[in-house]
Fold this sequence. Notes:
- The chain has 399 residues and is of the alpha+beta class.
- The protein has three domains: 7-90, no CATH class; 125-235, Butyryl-CoA Dehydrogenase, subunit A, domain 2, CATH 2.40.110.10; 252-395, Up-down Bundle (Butyryl-CoA Dehydrogenase, subunit A, domain 3).
- It is 44% helix and 15% strand.
- The chain contains twelve helices and ten strands.
- Helix 5 packs antiparallel against helix 6 and helix 8 (252-268) runs antiparallel to helix 9.
- The longest helix is centred in the C-terminal third of the chain and has 29 residues, at 280-308.
- It starts with 6 loop residues before the first helix and ends with a helix.
- The mean pLDDT is 89.
Amino acid sequence: MDLIFNADELAYRDEVREFLATKLPTEIRDRVRLASSYVPRADTVRWQNILHTQGWGAPNWPVEFGGTGWNAVQKYIYDAEYQAADCPRQSPFGISMVGPVICAFGTPEQKKQHLGPIISGERLWCQGYSEPGSGSDLASLQTKAVPQGDDYVVNGSKIWTSHAHHADWMFCLVRTDPDAKPQRGISFLLMDMTTPGITVKPIISIDGHHYLNEVFFDDVRVPISNRIGEENKGWTYAKFLLGHERTGIAGVGKSKRKVERLKAIAGIEQESGESLLALPAFRSRIAQAEVALQALEFTSLRILSQEKAGQPPGPEASTLKINGTEVEQTLNELMIEAIGHYAAPYPADAQDPERNEPPIGPAHGVGLMQERLLRRAATIYGGSNEIQRNIIAKAVLEL
């Protein structure tokens, strides 16, 4: 196993750093630092267009559809540098999720219709998976699609739909055969969000912001030509989608950035006349989080080394989501503890750069409570950590 980047890989890393440092607009970088999860659609689209112009709009797509042709190591380096540079998150639902599915399984007409607008940022997507009674047990979903002529008529609802209020299109799992075994009666549909019968209702998160939604379908007519692949085979395409991204799932670059911020805050905030960073107990807790993060990074690099050698990722890949989200939550908790009572007053608009009131407490505390509250869900979304442990117990430990 080789964990050292060679000269070409280091040169490529420097190229990525230079691009991100010079091409990311300052106002977008500043907004990300204040409120990384609530970057306006206009900024998301603007940055995506910059990446597309550079040829980096969709690193994981095949070259013939606009991908970069990067190898596994280059993708890993890019993801790490991107997360560490306060870049806005690319809208993942188009670039990282439905885009690769359309590339792999879409018809020529679907590729022509959707891939260009996705990679340019012109068309944003949302994901219609979870339902009120079907979250981690996604195969129990009940939203139905019944064929009528050239259309499916869709009825049901989805929940926790991120950015549905901004999305132009949704990729959606629907039940097309209620009598089949759960995984075998599901189809994968592409839906225009302006279609009559689609209603989007906001869900306000605990941090006071609108990020999530519930989406209702009342006799929504979706052309059968909008189905990906075969009818009742949607579970296959859904698994492909969920398994497509591996190297960036641990969020190592983002957590490294948080460690830097935590140390800076701990060096300023004081207790009994000493900085928190000078107190052995608090410094030890930071060190424990850093050790966990370093272990996570080495696990990611081991998987990367396997991919570089042409081997499929091993069972350790299953731990990335668990450990990555737990490290992130630990760092968030430490930052909240570091700013002390100034974490209590929480105006939801404190992260808005256009807010005309000064922050309550030190400037370095702005956005910390928002991030802490929002990321409490990190161990739930994308398959809860409890479910992930069940998967490891079954697939790895054979329990």
